[in-house]
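Q: Here's a chain of 373 amino acids. Please give me its 3D structure as C-alpha cells.
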Amino acid sequence: HNATRRSAQPQGRPIGRKKMKCRLIAAATILLGENVASTSAFLSKTRLSISPTRSMMSARKAVALGLDDEISRWAKKAGYGDVTSSKPNGSSGWASFKRVSLSDGPELFVKSSGRSCKDMFEGEALGLQAMFECSRGEDGLRIPEVFHYGDLPDGKGSFLVMEYLNLRGRGDDRALGRAVAKMHMAAPTAEAGNPTISYGFPMDNTIGGTLQKNAWSNGGGTDEWVKFYSEKRMAYQLDLAGDSYCSKLWDDKIGPRLGALFEGVDVQPSLLHGDLWSGNIGSADGEPSVFDPAVYWGHHEAEWGMSWCASLGAGFWQGYRELIPEDDGFYDREPLYLAYHYCNHYNLFGGGYLSSTRQELEKVARNLDKRSA
C-alpha cells in the first residue's frame, strides 16, 4: 500500500517557492534505528512509530496468528522448508512488518494488515512485480521479488510476502541514473503487466494518500498520452483541489492546446516508479534501489514531477542521459509534470503548495503561448 507522505511534509504550513525544501524525515529514518535501517526496501512512507489504539493492537494480534500459519503453509508448499525465525520489524499506522527466515529458502520481508488485500497490498504487489520484471539483468534497479500475497483464510486481514533487502542510504548516482533509464526503456509486455502497450496500470493505486486512476488508454502514442495525462492525472487532481483559478487556467488555456507541447515527440509507454523523491531512493547491497512506488506506464519525463524533492544531481543525469537522451521541448514540458505533484501535495497537506501549482500551470500556459506565437 502506497502510504502518505505526512511524516515528511507538515500540514497546512505555507511554504514559499524559493524556500520550499523536501522534509526528509522518512529518508533519515532509514538511517536511524537498526530496526528500520536493515528492513525491506518497500516500507510504507510513514516510518515513524504511530501509537496504536487497543483495538488496533487486538486486530494486529489476530492477524499475526493467522499470518504465521499462512506463511508456514505457503513455505512448505513452495519447497522452502520450515519457518526458523519470525521477528517483528516495525510498523506504520496501517500495516505491521516482519522479517522471516526459512530453513531452505530466501529471507523474507512480510507486511500485514487488518484490511483486505485489494485495499492494501494488491496494487503494491503488482507494481513491484512490474518493476522487478523491467529491471532484470545487469545494472538494473534492485527490486524485491514478490513471492506471495492475498487475504488471510479467516478473512481477518491480508499480507504481502517479498524478498528481504538490506536497505541502506543512497549510493552511486550515475549507477542510479542508468538503472532508472533501464527500467524506463523496458518493453511493455504481459509479464510486466502491460500486454496492450498502453498507458495506465492493471488497477488504480495511490500517490501518497490520493487515489491515482489508472484505467488503460486505447494503446500508446503521443495523442493517447496527452489524453491520459489530461484526464487521469491533472483533471482529477484539479477537481480535488477545487481552486477556480487553476481549473479555469487548465480548461481555457492549457487543456485544449496541450498536444502542442509534444509536437515532434514520439511518446511511448515507459514503466514509472511514479513517486520518485529522496525518501524513496537508496541502495541494497551496493545496488541502486527505489522504494514505495506509485507505479504506472506513462511518458518517461513524467517521472521527474518530484524532482524538486529528489536531489537528482549531475551524476544521476549523466548516467540517465547515457541511455535516454533529452528530447526537444523537455524544459517546456517540465512544469506540466511538476504541477501534478504540487497539486497532489496541496490536496494532501494544503498550504503553499497551491501557489506552487498555480506557478507551474502559468509556466505551461506561457510555454504554449510561446509555441503558438
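Q: Can you summarize the key feature?
A: The radius of gyration is 21 Å.
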